Each structure stands twice: as C-alpha cells, then as structure tokens.
Amino acid sequence: MSNEDGVYSVPGKEFDRDTRYITTRITADGSEGFPVEAGRYRLIAARACPWANRSIIVRRLLGLEDAISIGLPGPTHDKDSWTFDLDPGGVDPVLGIPRLKDAFLARDPEYARGITVPAIVDTTTGAVVTNDFAQMTLDLSTEWREHHRPGAPDLYPEALREEMDAVMRRVYTEVNNGVYRCGFAGSQETYDSAYDRLWTALDWLEERLAGQRYLVGDTITEADVRLFTTLVRFDAVYHGHFKCNRSKLTEMPVLWAYARDLFQTPGFGDTVDFDQIKAHYYVVHRDINPSGIVPQGPDLAGWFSDHGRESLGGRPFGDGTPPA
C-alpha cells in the first residue's frame, strides 16, 4: 500500500459503479483484431476480487489453464493500481511489469479510468485487450470452445440464455453490486435504500433456490458462478464491513446450503482465499475502516459441512466431468 489510499464512499452520494470498460473482445474469428490463440493471452485476476474470482472459476471449470496463463496481483492496492507484490521482485514474471496500470497505459497512454481486474493482456504487446468482466467469462465459454478440456461443462447453454440473462442481470444489479451500494453509501438515505434492495433480492433467491439446486436449469451455469463469488464473501466482509447485516449467510438456510454445495464442487472453493479477501476489503477501504485492522473471524469450518442439496437432483456438470 502507498500512502495514497483510494476514496470509495462520497458523503451524501449513492455509490455509482463506473462501468466504462475496454469492451474489445477476443473471438474465434478475430473480428475485433484479437483472435483466440492458445498461449497468447494472460488473465490478470486477483483472488481477493469477486469480479476476478468469476474469471478464475470459469477458466478452471472449462480447463483453459494451458491456453490462458494467469497472473495474480496481491490483495491490497493503492488508488493507482493493482500490483504484483506476490511475485518475486514485485514484477509479473510474464509481462515484466510491477503494476497492472502499465498494461492499461500500453493500450492507451491517456487511459484515465479505474485499473480493474480481471483484465486480459496480449503478451505479444503487453497491452490490455479487455477488462469487461461480464462479457469476458461468457466469451471463455463460447469463443474458446476449441480449447476447453474434455468433459467441460456448458456454462452458457443456448436454450437457457434468455432466462439466464434475466437472472444474471438481477443478481448483478441487486446482489453483486448491491453489497457495494450498501458499503459505499454516502448517506443514511442511500444506505437504507440500498439495504432494502439487497435484502429483497436475497429473499427472492432464498425462495427461488428452495426447490431447485441451481439458479437456472439443473446444472452449474455462469449464473451460479456470478452469485457464488458474492455469497462466499458475505460473512467475511459484506455482513460487517459493508453493513449488510440483517442476517449472516449462515442464518439463511437455503442460500447457506447452496453456497456450501458450490464451495465443495471442484472449481469453486479451491479458487477462494479468505485471507486475501479480508485483507483487500479491510485494508484497502481505509475511508470505511480507518484502522486497517483485519478481523480474525468468521470461523470457516462450516464451509465443509454437509449441505444436503443433492436431494434436489441436478447434475453439477451435466454430461461432463469435474475439473481435475
């Protein structure tokens, strides 16, 4: 961390996420100048970040580890950039840079927006191709098919896309971003509104998942990946740090069982690092947690307890197989 920390909560203001991403896509036909090519691209994805955690999970479920390398920034950063402080010498071993910002500036020397993860970098130029996290994972499922492992699941099945898109839109606006809207609220009024929206959506999910094992269809899809990365952080950071404290995840029977089911599924829990998650939120958000003290809890043993969701049927990987 530098001495210059970011500011996340603006007094009197509702949190408004900047969604002006670099939307260039890597496609099978290379229509936007970046064709799918094994070994060419590097995914930069901090384990601390829920948006980046999605891409790590999808890459692992689809077996794209050999096709797309991964760089892992540390959990803490200043307002300037994510940094590669976990790597020897504080430099990414493939890109040769200490800050992710360097790859954004290689794409656009005048780039003035947020330096976000996940980002995919073209190793031939050292420049970011995209940081559009929502489209990125869908493209890993659809455009990168020739490089999927045998038995990879279909995370974005065509027959379910209309329903998936609607569910994922609500999960994003009300839950994924909803916790941030609570945590970064700049007034009591904006917090109260955000809190009500969040719990309306979580109650909806608790009811929806009471009778079905997965969010859409009877197998794991991208919709489950997107909800999971928020749920797995809920008790560790969102309940206390972001004041999303009507209930803990462990006090919501259906969502708690659903989250444990996914956590114990290969490709999900094995991508999660609770120490990095807590360090990121409690250390980086100094305007919310000025002391920078990271709590020791909660107890994580419950994540490995029986969930009983098998009784609802469903097949995690459909006709496919789990990742090794």
UniProtKB/TrEMBL annotation:
Site (Lowers pKa of active site Cys): 238, 281
GO molecular function: glutathione transferase activity
Binding-site positions, glutathione: 82
Xref: PANTHER family: GLUTATHIONE S-TRANSFERASE OMEGA-LIKE 1-RELATED, GLUTATHIONYL-HYDROQUINONE REDUCTASE
Chain segments annotated as transmembrane: none
Protein source organism: Sanguibacter suaedae
Record-given protein name: Glutathione S-transferase C-terminal domain-containing protein
Every GST C-terminal domain range: 157-281
Catalytic site: 49, 180
Top-rank taxon, per record: Bacteria
GO cellular component: cytoplasm
SUPFAM superfamilies: GST C-terminal domain-like, Thioredoxin-like
Annotated InterPro entries: Glutathione-S-Trfase_C-like (IPR010987), Glutathione-S-Trfase_C_sf (IPR036282), Glutathione_S-Trfase (IPR040079), Glutathione_S-Trfase_N (IPR004045), GST_Omega-like_C (IPR047047), GST_Omega/GSH (IPR016639), Thioredoxin-like_sf (IPR036249)
